[in-house]
Each structure stands twice: as structure tokens, then as C-alpha cells.
Structures
1.
Amino acid sequence: MNKTTKELDVVIIGAGPIGLACGIEAKKNNLNYLIIEKGSIVNSIFNYPTNMTFFSTSERIEIGNVPFVSHGIKPTRRKRLNITGE
């Protein structure tokens, strides 16, 4: 390993909800980590079915104490991505 290469404790594949949660926990535990994602940070949510409704309530699916804001009891994909028309 050369001097410019940083040794990693964890490599996380995917920056979806689980990958982001893992990255937050790695940071809390002072681990050197890298998150690898092939698309945008919301790519996994973007690829969910258009009319999908999440089964959990907003407060149960927040990530890193960032609320998953929803106007209804159960959030939808369109509201999460702020897509107009709903």
C-alpha cells in the first residue's frame, strides 16, 4: 500500500437506505469507510414502483435522525422524491 492509499475498515456497497445507515454507524464508531453506489444517492427509491406506499410509518424509516417527512400516515415514493402530480 502506498502513502496516498488509506486503509479502509469497511466498504459498503450501495447508498440506499441500508447503505447510508451503515455509513452513519461506521462514522459513529470511528471506522474508515467507503460507500460505493452506481447511481444517485436516491437511486434505490427512484427505482421503486411509481405508486409504491411504504409499509412503515415516517418515524420508523428515518435515517441518521433525519426525518422521513410525510403528510399521510404512510409515505409514498412520489412524496419522498417530491415528484409533482400527487
2.
Amino acid sequence: MIEHPKAEELVEAVARWIDSVRPQLAPRDAFLARVAANALGVVKRELQQGAAAEAAAVERLSAVLGRGGTLSELNADLCARLRAGEMDAATPGLLAALRANITEQIAIDQPSYAPEPG
């Protein structure tokens, strides 16, 4: 199996190249290049942190819901229980689990955003 370059390294190389040519571009193209470079940053962080964040989210939701499953299954179950009124903000551990899940997702999607402490 080929070990290098890894996906994260390839993504980083393309993002750096985009950043290096961006100053020479027309304003609209420079903006679109910046958007592309930012998107690659999200992909890189997803590759680096996504699996651990998802595993932690599954663990937290499993504890709150009292059952296992995939993240998609647990989210669907949570939504169904919220709609049915079986769970709400007063459900023990729910808000803490949701806050932790979204904080980890923000670290991937928008790492410069600093969520309010809570």
C-alpha cells in the first residue's frame, strides 16, 4: 500500500497552490480561489478529526437515547423523540451532548469561530 502522499497532504498541497496563484487572479477569481482553498481546509480537518468526532457523537447520543446505532440512526431517533415530545431541553444530558457535538463540528467547519463557553 502506498503511504505517501496521504489525502491530507494532497489537500494541503492543492490549497497552498491555490493560495500562491490567488494574488495574480482577477478579483472574482481570487474570491472563488479563496472559497476553494477554504473548502479544502474543511476537507483536511474532516479527514483528520471527522472519525473521532463522529465516534464521540455516537457515544454521547447513545448515552442520552439509551441505545446504540450509527450517527444517522441516532440523529433520526433523537429528532423523532423531540417531535413526539418524549425528549426536550430538560432531558438529562441532552443539551450537553448536543453542545459537545456541535462544538466538535464547528472545529472542523469553522475553526476560527469561538463558541460561547457554556
